[in-house]
Amino acid sequence: MKWKHFRRRWFQEPLLAGVFLAARAVLVRLPLGGLRTAARWAGALAWCWPPARRLVLANLAVVFPERSPAERRRLGRASLGNAFLTPLELLWFSRHPERLRVALDLSDAVVKATFAEIAGGGAGCIFLTPHLGNWEFAGQSVELSGIPMHAVAARVRNAVTDRAVNQVRQSWGMRIIPARGAVRGLVGAIRAGHGVGLLVDQNTQPDQGGVFVPFFGLPVAATRAPASLARKLNCPVVLGIVLRTAGGGFRLQIEAVVRQPAAFASDEALTAELVRLQEAPIRRHPEQYLWFYDRWRLIPPGCPEADRARFPYYSWEWNR
């Protein structure tokens, strides 16, 4: 164990940090068009890896059973390209932060009205986004709209890389709350009238605070944390997405606002509504969604056989 610790601390971690910093130094100097071309090629290469292709197609079959196999393959390849492009754009624009203000369209009337209402109310907000479009810019868009923004980030094991990644995410003023002990930071930020950003389409097991709710007709294990916070503090919940536009820019779109979360009977009821609201924008922009994730990982106990047959190959029954 001592040798493994020594090797990781003095060889593996410095090597990984060096690779990350060197790659960042090169990538931020590429033209943005070249970066996007590289991401498309990376997505095409990833599509050639059978496990990735199988996972993406299995998820697309759940949501779009009516589409042809050829159409699902097209969407899958585009989705993988988008997955590579999102962190690359974050790195690139962090070196050119003023350019994001130009590339990001915040002019939508609903966006302006929503943030004006939140700023005027002084109660803060919870800003939710799925892995759709460029999700890394979702929190930044709120900050650039005039609402002080906080986001929860899990610590990267490599300390050098962790600092570098957080510096990039804070390029436009957004504040980072460490994932460990995040609740206190989230509550404090909301009570100060700030916004907190959360990604909400990841699996959370029931014994870790998750609850089974429908997502495209099949149950998924979703976190109840946003619902619990919103009902406790009775602050508005905003579902927003930063979508890519045809001209190579980005557009913030407000999909829904839940203004009275305390009116919901339970955390489960509000969680179900927040998950349901994600479906429409994903259906409209499936090529920009992250399908490379085992979202339907857990099958709830007592699931009807008709539903059980629709679960992807990777799913397993939760019975703890």
What report would you give on this structure?
There is one protein chain. With 320 residues, the chain is an alpha/beta fold. The chain has helices spanning 2-27, 32-47, 50-63, 69-95, 97-103, 109-121, 138-144, 159-169, 182-191, 225-233, 267-277, 279-284, 305-308, and strands spanning 104-105, 125-129, 149-153, 175-178, 195-199, 210-215, 218-223, 237-244, 250-258, 298-299, 316-317. It has a 7-stranded mixed β-sheet with strand order 1-9-8-2-5-3-4, sandwiched between helices. A two-stranded antiparallel ribbon has the order 6-7.
What does the radius of gyration come to? 20 Å
Order of helices and strands: HHHHHEHEHEHEHEEEHEEHHEHE
How many strand segments? 11
CA-based shape? globular
Measured between the Cα atoms of the first and last residue, the distance is 32 Å
Contiguous runs where pLDDT drops below 50 for at least 5 residues = none
Largest sheet: 7 strands, mixed
Helix content: 40-55%
Number of helical stretches of at least 4 residues:
13
**What's the rounded overall pLDDT mean?**
90
How are the strands of the largest sheet arranged?
1-9-8-2-5-3-4
The fraction of residues in strands falls at 15-25%
Q: Report the structural category.
A: alpha/beta
Oligomer: single chain
